[in-house]
Amino acid sequence: MRLFYYRAAEGNFGDDLNSWLWEELAPGRWSDEADTLFCGIGTIIGNAMPPASKIRVFSSGLGYRPRPSDFASDRWDVVALRGPLTAHVLGQPERAIADGALLLSTLERLRPIAASERGATILIPHYEAMNECDWPAICAQAGIGLVDPRQCAHQVIDRIRHARLVIADSMHAAIIADTMRVPWIPVSSSGRINSFKWLDWTMSLDLPYEPIALPIASLDGAYRDQVRRIIGEHYRLTRPNPERALAHQRRMTRNEQRPWWMSVRPRMKHHLLALPRRLPQPAIVARAIAQRDRRQTERLGAMLYGLKSATGFLSGDRIFAQRVDQLSVEFDKLLRSA
């Protein structure tokens, strides 16, 4: 089978798990020349995919794109889905299990470590948020460790395993923390945080999703967030619940199915994002923006400081073990049929 997953240009450890996890679980079963695609970890259902006679879906999810137009055809072989929301939209509720990253727990070298060996609280932002504010300064003020999600997945996992608490803006920071049995707290840094995706996963483990909205530290970041809202790429819900998430997903995907909008949106996005650089910025305005950003940075640091001693979420041992067993059984079936 040929692995298919999202590859962020700058790297994103959650997606990059695909590059080695499946080979470690099933050595020698993967080839770039194969005519069957394997879709594992990630929100990739509905994305443009390379030509293939068969697409096997194992724990992938929806979140940004509509259901594929040919999804009812024999080309799609759905073995497992990330959670009940994806399964509902695709009409396959029996395939809802959990995110495939839970199978990290089956690797002996990644067994959870004792609480006495764990260190400080860490923050893992969304990979696209890393350039939008001074995270090192913010985390230094809060007295917590910063983990860059763009670095090697092995390094990120190691930091998570050795943490006392994970403050997770990145969804896979929470997923892997839960897998390593490390408590986690969900936060939301901007409208790019996708409530549908988070609910899809948390519901798979009977967990609530109660994110803490973080202030956007920079004016530039706040402007970019408003652009996301204008162009229909704002995925965060104020009060996330399954019904609202499904309704929001339907609205978002309706726009994706309008050819005129899909042709206009990229140009609109480009021009809106470039607009601030084209406007004059007198010194007095620059000073006011810098002052505003300092206040927001201090506010964000104070919020994170308050979270570092909070009680995090963790799925129950029983349901976690059930989901790992289900994923393991379905993965073995998939390998036998491939």
TrEMBL record:
InterPro entries: Polysacch_pyruvyl_Trfase
Superkingdom per UniProt: Bacteria
Domain Polysaccharide pyruvyl transferase: 153-190
Listed name of the protein: Succinoglycan biosynthesis protein ExoV
Organism: Sphingobium scionense
